[in-house]
Amino acid sequence: MPAADSSPQAPQHVAIIMDGNGRWATARGRPRLFGHQAGARRVSEIVEACPDLGVRYLTIFAFSTENWKRTQAEVSGLMTLFRRYIIKEAQRLLNKRVRVRFIGDRDRLDPKLVKLMDELETLTAGNDHVNLTIALNYGGRDEVTRATRRLAHEVAAGRIDPDDVGAETLSRFLDTHTLPDPDLVIRTSGEARISNFLLWQSAYAEYEFVDTLWPDFTAEKFAKVLSGYGKRERRYGAVLG
Ligand code: IPE
Ligand code: IPE
Ligand code: MG
């Protein structure tokens, strides 16, 4: 039964840009928020599929630092959805032994939402079956900028020698400092771009762009993408014999 052993080619860490909720709703003549609600339901299915597929880390892009540019109605609808999702799913995530972490800048988020995020992290901190990371008010450039600022303070305080600063040093200041780099980044909805997601961490990730809109991305489709990953050869710049 431990599928992690039976699928040695499984990516350890999968990151997903969950895109296409709005188009999914529009195609049904419904408001965009209807698509976000359908998308949120899909998240649980994908998280729960991870153990059997051998995926230990799943990171999902829920709200970008650029998504504030949307209408106030959509932004506040999304924020309400995030709060409700945490309240509704907390117990289930705990029971499924999912450890939840959040990445992104919490300063601009509603304190009520931040409190729920902190509580969910604490509640699930002892879990290790699946590591779910939710990127909320996250942007890759913003993350590197915040990390650099903190690092600069450490240097200015004399705690880090500027000559000792390497890639590892900067990694330690990123929101993702407790996570391995993603092996595979999936984007749904047919758009082939990164939209500021995990810029530093994805240096050697494999990418998969799938046409399916996020609310239609089933566990079955997820499994199919992962089996394609198993056939790839990762070279990291070297020439393999
Ligand atoms: C992704 O779906 C979810 C978020 C960005 C919050 P979109 O809302 O971007 O859906 P499309 O791309 O407009 O269809
Ligand atoms: C990326 O999707 C952000 C999330 C999935 C949360 P967007 O829909 O915001 O990205 P663009 O605007 O198509 O680049
Ligand atoms: Mg989109």
Structure overview:
By secondary structure, this protein is α/β, with parallel strands linked by helices. It has a single domain, classed as 3-Layer(aba) Sandwich (Undecaprenyl pyrophosphate synthetase). The protein is 43% helix and 15% strand. A six-stranded parallel sheet has the order 3-4-2-1-5-6, with helices on both faces. Strand 3, helix 5 and strand 4 form a beta-alpha-beta unit. The N terminus is likely disordered. One 3-methylbut-3-enyl trihydrogen diphosphate binds next to strand 2.
Quick description:
This protein is an alpha/beta fold. Helix content is about 45%, strand content about 15%.
Per the CATH scheme, the topology name is Undecaprenyl pyrophosphate synthetase
Low-confidence stretches: 1-7
| H and E order | HEHHEHEHEHHEEH
Which geometry do the CA atoms define?
globular
- Topology, number of strands: 6
